[in-house]
Specification:
single chain, 51 residues, alpha+beta, 1 helix, flat
Length: 51
């Protein structure tokens, strides 16, 4: 497996941990669930994505 980042810093220089989830192209139900969960987190009220 590739050496993936374990954390990243956002535009405000705040450190965040990273969780990597392997997704197979054949597991479309799991892929759809992952996308839905990601969109739900990103769409939470109070989230600001402007730099």
């Amino acid at each position: 497996m590739a050496n993936l980042k374990q954390e990243y810093r956002d535009c405000k220089n705040v450190k965040h941990s990273v969780e990597h989830l392997p997704v197979s192209g054949q597991e479309s139900a799991d892929r759809e669930r992952l996308i839905a969960e990601l969109l739900a987190v990103l769409a939470q009220p109070g989230r600001d994505f402007s730099p």
